[in-house]
């Protein structure tokens, strides 16, 4: 690879002043050519030469051996996946030549890439996850013919969805020939773009090039190239000092010097001082200086009003007529001050120079705000001028600022909404309105800083007298308190208002719905801490089950399912409540309803309902713009993926969740994001990294948490076990069990401490303790009744059995039970344990069979510890281990594969049965099994899934 890099570098002339940066590009291309994905993020302030550096990539591809897709985001209208469409546009996906790119799963991205093309009904409006995977496959298809270079300039203006896809692509392209180049202004990145770019930068394949000012030697290269003669050292030193090493300022300075006929010698150094003082400002103002006052006035008005200002607005602020505005705009464009169309400047540096020269006063800001408001410009544009005023004293300002806050909240920018709402309070004098604004402020602030929101909401609780408004405020306060880990306070306040509602109002349908809304939140929030879990358990036991015909009834059902799932009630009953709560035909489920119901489905292994619903829930929260909520929902989704054996995806999503959380003010109010990431890392065999992550968690409230404390203890115990410290692992598991028993949490699958501790105790020779633990858990396992619970119990019985044949019998039963469930990791463990037990009975042939199956399943899931341990045993057993599976298709039996292939081609079940001479029931059984193994939920996805079959 070093030779390839050298050959690339030798064929081109590096950009003057940026030889180091060009070398980084050369290394990136060489690594990409060798099949190691790379990302270079070029970051710098305006004028540092980001765009010019990125154009150098064309020189390095001297043989045209790369496919280069390029977009400048400033030229792309802002829309979902707008930058991605612009990247793929030159490929002409409608033509036959584009068929290779859109083959296979890439078809799922066509509605995004080419909305003008006809699509099959199955491809209409694909979900975000399907779109991301489809775009990934389209890029992978391109890379199958040539290395791919993706260049995104002005990435700070890129739409969020395109940035998220680039992050998604890079995470999954480690062994693909890809080079991703991003150029952005670090000072202009705001959430969510800042978040996604941070995710990209955090990846191992990423290199950040901070374009710092040019040093004097680099300035000398640029000067020599500009004048075509060797410059004097004093001339170079003066240019470096005056320009500050900024490439744009330097280019403007050298252009002015050349136009003035200055030579790059010692005498010319004096001219550099004269021409170069405040280079850009002087350059701009010198071009304006010979213009009439009306032209300079229009330039100043354009700088103040910003892009998008109409001719009437410019005329009003500049104090000129509309035809004078048109004339002035033409002059400013001719002098390269304004862009070719509209009233935007050619560069932000130019606008800044005009603003600094204009020195906008508060009265002019106020005039600008009035003009924009009268012109009907968006409230945000008007409000930004109001924010710059030291005093707000006119009643119309409150309405503008509030409208801007509402708009920014809808756009998913709660931080901006909070800024506007705070200033509304500076101008609003009506006490009822102030209470309403403060309630809005507390609600929006809770999305980004629950600790700051709590005092605002707590104070309002004592000021609001209207019962309906008070209840709404109580619900906001309770959810905020729960986010800030103040569960007991939330439960107390909810209990008080529930008692008031129950005692003081008629039982009308509206009142009944209101009571259920409060009670359901009490149940969900109260189930979050050990100190309040007993209260909600008692409430659930005493109350009737609602039908689920209203949104409040569905949330109550979700709460009941959540509490009952933790308690370990029969899973069938829990699933029924959870499915009704989600109301798969309804769209009114809030975040709390979805989290509670999805958690219950998660423990019950209802994969078909759970996975698509969990994806939709994550997307919904992401679109709300609440960064902490999004990171938490993403960690829940990662845990679902891990539960069903998708270790790689779980690790990627959990890492994103943790990195998102670290940048929020609510980072100290949760550990879920970090324990989820650590759990996935443990399954990947990255034990040291996982333990470092777990050791960082230090929360005062931690041990009171129902979910996070027990997930933490279980993850730490597994890490200790894989380290070889079985004694410490057992102690952690028993501590977990004591804590769960004290709280009344009895689900055998949630943080399954009992069977894990029993297996470890048996290995330590403490067999009687292990047997006692297993027998004590029998009732809970049978009551919950899922295949995972029963299979794990059978595995534990096999581990503690004295008789080898009895151990083999129990483990054989475990394999059989788990093979019909979505618990792939558990099935892999069962095959591994059975293989080890068969070796002890000297049934080597059967042992190898199960160990190979364990290797295959663990490899597909991405679990290194299971795969490596099984492989070591298989080698001990003798014989060839064989090639691990590369696709879930390889899990299909011959009959399942024949049926799935025919179904994918459009053949009906009855036609398949007749063609294969089997019963219709047999076809349905094979298809159901194929769906589970391929992790698809509909017939239309079979063709894509089967396309990943192994061909060797």
From TrEMBL:
<keyword id="KW-0067">ATP-binding</keyword>
<feature type="domain" description="HTH luxR-type">
    <location>
        <begin position="885"/>
        <end position="950"/>
    </location>
</feature>
<protein>
    <submittedName>
        <fullName>LuxR C-terminal-related transcriptional regulator</fullName>
    </submittedName>
</protein>
<dbReference type="InterPro" id="IPR011990">
    <property type="entry name" value="TPR-like_helical_dom_sf"/>
</dbReference>
<keyword id="KW-0547">Nucleotide-binding</keyword>
<dbReference type="InterPro" id="IPR027417">
    <property type="entry name" value="P-loop_NTPase"/>
</dbReference>
<dbReference type="InterPro" id="IPR016032">
    <property type="entry name" value="Sig_transdc_resp-reg_C-effctor"/>
</dbReference>
<dbReference type="InterPro" id="IPR036388">
    <property type="entry name" value="WH-like_DNA-bd_sf"/>
</dbReference>
<dbReference type="Pfam" id="PF00196">
    <property type="entry name" value="GerE"/>
</dbReference>
<dbReference type="InterPro" id="IPR000792">
    <property type="entry name" value="Tscrpt_reg_LuxR_C"/>
</dbReference>
<dbReference type="Pfam" id="PF13191">
    <property type="entry name" value="AAA_16"/>
</dbReference>
<dbReference type="InterPro" id="IPR041664">
    <property type="entry name" value="AAA_16"/>
</dbReference>
